[in-house]
Structures are given as C-alpha cells and as structure tokens.
Amino acid sequence: MSRTTLLALGSLIVGLLVLWIKFIAWQITGSVALLSDALESIVNVATAAAALLAVIYANRPADANHPYGHHKAELFSAVLEGVMIVVAAVFILHEAWDSLFAPRVIQAPLPGLMINGAASLLNAVWAYVLISRGRSLRSPALVADGKHLRTDVVSSIGVAFGVAFAVFTGLPWLDPLMAALVAVNILWAGWGVMRHSVGGLMDEALPEEDLERIRAVIATEATGAYQAHDLRTRQAGSAIFIEFHLVVPGNSTVNAAHEVCDRVEAALESELPGAVITIHVEPEEKAKRSGIVVH
Predict the structure, then answer these.
(1) Looking at the structure, do residues 196 and 212 belong to the same domain, yes or no?
(2) Which regions span the lipid bilayer (predicted)?
(3) What is the pTM of this model?
C-alpha cells in the first residue's frame, strides 16, 4: 500500500473518530453551533472516503484507455469535496435560521466544549500531517483534505468562543449566529478547494517558482545545445508533465543529442520527482528569439 493511500485511509479513520466525539459534544449541550461543527465532520468523513477511492484509482498504472495514467482522479475528488462543503454549509444555515427564531438553552457547556476541543486538537494535528505530506507526495486530494480540516479547526475555535460567550452573556441567539458564521467560513473554503481543482482539470501550468526551477535546470544541464523554447507544463494529480523543444547543432549525431536529453531529463527528475518529460530535438535553424539560453 502506497504512502498516499495510507494517509487517505488514516483520514477516514480520524474523520470517523472526530465525528463521534463532536456528536457527543452536541448531544450533551444541545448547541446548534456545536451541531454545525458536527455536521461539517460528516462532510469530512464523506470526503475522506472519496479521497481514499480517488487515491487508489489514481495510483493505477497507465493502460491502453488511459495512456497518461489515472492521476486526475484526485482532482475530481477535490472538486467533490468542495461541492460537499457547500452542501454542509447550506444545512448549517438552515439549522441556524430556525434556531435564531427559537433559541435553545445550552446545557452543560463546559464538558461539551472540552469534548469538542479534544476533537479539534485531533483535527489540527491530522491537518498538519495531510498538508505537509500531501505536498511532498504531490497529492491534491490529500492537500485539499488537509486544508478542509484546517478550516474545520478554525471554525471549531470560533464555535467554542461563540458558545462560551452565549452562555456568559445569557444571549442564546449568539449560538445560531455563530453557526451561521461557521457556514460562511466553510463556504469560502469550499470555493477555494473547487477553484484549485478546476484549475488542475483545465491543465493549468505549474506555479512560477517551479517554472523557474525547470528553466534553471535546462540552462545548466543542456550543455551542448543552443537553446530550449516552447516550454509547456501541467500537473494532473501527483504527476507533472514537462514538454519543450531543445535546439542542438545541426551536425550533432543522434547519439550526442540523445545524451544531452538524457542528462537534462535526469536533472529534471531529480529536481521534480515523478515528472514525465518530453523533449523535441530541433536543429539550430529552428532557434527562436525568445527561449532558455543554455550556459
């Protein structure tokens, strides 16, 4: 089982545990704000399950029908996560609206907040693990799941302050108001997740810092060539695709040109592990005014 799959499976287990803990906190207090926190955990479980399935599918090798692999399955999972976040926010807003006109008395606030705090601490630790490991493994599904959990932690902190303030001031309408603010917060998070994932599905280029690294490697390692131009990149899940034209002397032998390409490919794969590189070799008369100048 790959590290990505293990992390996705861990997310599902952690999500189920946090969901159970948060529902206990809601049952003890009857707080609609804590209910909103628990409802968001249902989304966490559903999206963790979707991410696990996506990661398993994305790790399948390329085949005749999918010659570039199945990497984009992770991006579909991240889009689904964004959609489910929006659905959860709508449910929370509905519950908050009803409770605003029929405020509920919060029972046993201290035990409930302590239990909910334990769940939030678990989420915070796991969010850090998912984001850091997801980035190193170049897994959009894991990073999206981690960012969602991080948003959940922020929401939970806000909920805790809101519930405590409602109890302290004796203003029960603050409880549904905090639930509504939680809903707005996760709506924003859902938009961010979907925007990033749709960008991946539309084959957006790599970030500028990665492009600079690629240009630097080509300029340094392509000794024997004149220039590289028409650099194109895209990312599909954990896979990175790099394509460019490499201009070599017209009298170069096939072996000499191939040696330059091998050296550049090895350097790029070392800089960006897992990159799929395609180099089109051209003679010197194909050089362009703009391009990567080889040192």
Answers:
(1) no
(2) 41-59, 75-93, 113-131, 152-171, 177-194
(3) 0.58
Please name which of 88, 92, 113 lies closest in space to residue 22, comparing C-alpha atoms. Answer: 113
Q: Strand 227-236 to strand 239-248: parallel, antiparallel, or no bridges (unpaired)? A: antiparallel
Instruction: Clarify whether residues 217 and 233 are in a common domain.
Output: yes
Q: Which residues does residue 293 pair with via DSSP β-bridges, in sequence order? A: 227
Asked whether residue 197 falls in the same domain as residue 64, the answer is yes
User: What pairs with residue 278 in β-bridges?
Assistant: 243
Output the pLDDT for position 43.
73
132 and 265 fall within a common domain: no
161 shares its domain with 247 = no
Number of domains in the chain: 2
Residue 242 lies in domain: 208-293
Q: Which tens digit of pLDDT belongs to each residue from 149-160?
A: 887 787 788 778
Confidence of residue 17 (pLDDT cuts 50, 70, 90): very high
Long-range interactions of 269-276: CB distance < 8 A, separation 24+ = 271/213, 271/214, 271/217, 272/210, 272/213, 272/214, 272/240, 272/242, 274/138, 274/238, 274/239, 274/240, 275/239, 275/240, 275/241, 275/242, 276/68, 276/239, 276/240, 276/241, 276/242
Going by pLDDT thresholds of 50, 70 and 90, the confidence category of residue 74 is low
Q: What is the pLDDT of residue 278?
A: 94
Task: Give the model's confidence band at 62: pLDDT under 50 very low, under 70 low, under 90 confident, else very high.
Answer: confident
Identify the domain boundary among 180, 201, 222: 201
